[in-house]
Amino acid sequence: SDPSQQSTGPGSFVSNKRYLTSFARGDCNLYDNDISYCRDACYRTVQLRVDQTESGDYDLRVTREEDGIQVFLKDAFMYEGQTNRTNYHNYYRKFSASLPYGDYKLEFFHNGSPIWPRYAYEVWEAAPDCEGSVIINSAKVVEPELIGGECDDMVANGDMEEGLKGWLHSNTEIDGSNGYLEALEGAGIGGSTAIGVYNRKHDNFGLGTNLDTRCFHQNKLAFYEVKAWFRLEDSGDVVFCD
User: What is the pLDDT of residues 91-127, one digit of tens each?
Assistant: First the structure.
């Protein structure tokens, strides 16, 4: 419905937040409970799911290209401070932008400087019934240019010298009963740091990390060789497999 009876097209009720009202094509009128009715506005949401381990202070800047209007968005993440769940590979950090029609740039920033969260997986909601919402491919995710040497080490913290930074596992439990990770100083090759995977109950509950997609975009059709060293133990005793 249109409370003011002034719309010439579709309208939307939204929370009275700048990141929602700034891109409206018509006026937004404030009503009860901090709700605004925006005339001639039909919104559709695109969600960017990113690596959660280092992106807690990131902002997503959304810019409409035709007029330069910008908003900054914060992430949604349920498990801040819960180490085991934070390192669960499917607990993405999520940035959501609800947009009417137009062409937009989506860029990540940290303390005012462009940054890239290793990857940004786009998830679009279904097209709404109203006309005039943003369409797929009209919101472009911008990858900042690589600085020299950023792809020299494809696996960030591959030597584990920064502990668990960047490393993930498969376990949704907070107490580690279904698996957890632990940094082990001196347990690696030549006295280096290693990462222990404990309470692993399934073959797919292993160790993993996310790679910077920009490195692959600049080296299309390239082949990569991945090497890793593992030691299997049972209650502290090394297990040798036939």
Answer: 899 999 999 999 999 999 999 999 999 999 999 999 9
- pLDDT tens per residue across span 38-68: 988 899 999 999 998 889 999 999 999 999 9
Helix segments in the chain, DSSP class H: 18-21, 83-86, 213-217
Dig out the tokens for 204 from the structure.
């797919």
Rounded-to-integer distance, Cα 182 and Cα 171, Å: 14
**Tokens, residue 53:** 């381990």
Start-to-end C-alpha separation, the chain: 71
Three-state DSSP class for residue 78: coil
Percentage of residues in the chain having pLDDT higher than 90: 45
Spatial CB neighbours of 88, under 8 Å, sequence gap ≥ 6: 79, 168, 169, 170, 171, 172
Class of residue 152 by CB neighbours under 10 A (exposed 0-12, middle 13-18, buried 19+): exposed
Tell me which residue has tokens 């030597």.
Answer: 159
Tally the C-alpha atoms within 13 A of residue 112's C-alpha that lie toward its C-beta: 0
CB-CB contact of 102 with 26 (8 Å): no
* C-alpha–C-alpha distance, residues 53 and 165, integer Å: 7
Distance, CA of 137 to CA of 135 (rounded, Å) = 6
